[in-house]
User: What shape does this take?
Amino acid sequence: MNYLRRRLSDSSFVANLPNGYMMDLQRPTPPGSSTSSPASPATERRNPPGSICPPPAQAPSPTPGSFLSSFSSSAAAASATGEAGSTGAAQPAKPVIRKPKILLVIDDQHTEWAKYFRGKKLNGEYEIRVEQAEFSEINLAAYVNSGCTVDMQVTRGGSKVVSRSFKPDFVLIRQHAYSMIPGEDFRNMVIGLHFGGVPSINSLYSIYNFCSKPWVFSQMIKLYHSLGPEKFPLNEQTFFPSHAQMVPGGSYPVVVKMGHAHAGMGKIKVENQQDFQDITSVVALAGTYATSEPFVQSKYDIRIQKIGNNYKAYMRTSISGNWKANTGSAMLEQIAMTDRYRLWVDSCAEMFGGLDICAVKAVHGKDGNDYIIEVMDSSMPLIGEHVEEDKQLITELVLHKMALALLGVSMPQPSSVKTTQPRRGGHRSASASPSQSAQGSPQRARSANTSPSQAFQPGPIPAVTGPGAQKQSPHLNKSQSLTNTLSETLKGNPTDDEAKAETIRSLRQSFASLFSD
Assistant: This one.
């Protein structure tokens, strides 16, 4: 730039330029024109009519500053235009904000489902907002075109915690929709959700059908006739629409189940005809239907559960001696999943258009035979040492079903067709009834060195050797000795009933002294 300034200030350099070469630079700038955007020479030579252009010889001498100013202004304008263009191209596009999908979970307050869905997205795009409440804490209105609107009022400790309205996109039902307890008939809520077209797990159609246990048992009877008693050993059952048809007869003892009760409620063991007549009067006061089935001398209970494509099997043995294995103390152990068990649960999973979550309950009698007694749906309780894993499986299943129902895409399920087999050193725990568990009753766990093929029979715990043996507490050693005795008793000769009964009585006293320490 300094070089140009020196050259243009030399008069001999300007005089030697061709005639008219500096004419445009010599002409004074008209008022109001901008020097930053000079016009073309053809435009500048176009004069209004009648005007006289001064001859080139009379043009004033060129001013170096005007040329430099014009040159600098043009360069600055070009630079500004380039910066503006580059800045505009570098600006990123605004992200598209998608409305989150609302998942309504109907469950009690003991499980916080929001933490299992935290950070999860549908197809990597839609976030999930979890709204959890019990059936008693929601109300709704359903419309033909606008779907379903849920009003939720959650109360904890007598004070209102949540009160809002929303439109659920999906529903996970983990609670019984109908119970014999007064005020716990929520079938109208199931109808409203179905009326609003809300997809769910399990399907609302199956949830409504599971509101009557004899209705579900009638579907099991169809499986019994189609598969045969060898593949599907269903326990016999008699249905009475009311107390008027309950006539004493047949062999005893029997188990009478009143209405649609859960978790061992409404089940009575009847020893003879006189007791049966007494129960008939109770059924008359309840004003409901009833069923009767032969009582099975149980060795242990069996439960086979299916969550999506995951299978597990459990064995529960009563310790307290109650004929209901879910009442009092019991040992719970995961056992090997067999093809026979898989057939049971897969057949029942086809009920009512398909069950995503279900479980089959059976009794293994002392006669060596199995008797299927019940099927549970998505409201089934989770048991055993894999409860957290089962909750994760339910979460993955809900994500898969939500993406399929709302977006029409199939998200891959991390847990493919899988059967969770008992680990080496199967888990056994002393469990209590639901009411006792809610009160925080103590639970004991122990391990056994059993392979899956041996897991059907409880075995003794091998003695612990090495430095870790001295670190065991006296309670653990005492518990192990008691369980070893119990295992030997269960594996003994089944004909020695009196000796086994005496051993069981001594075990009860020992367990009582153990827990009272």
The first strand starts at residue 101 and ends at 106. Residues 82 and 88 are 10 Å apart (CA to CA).
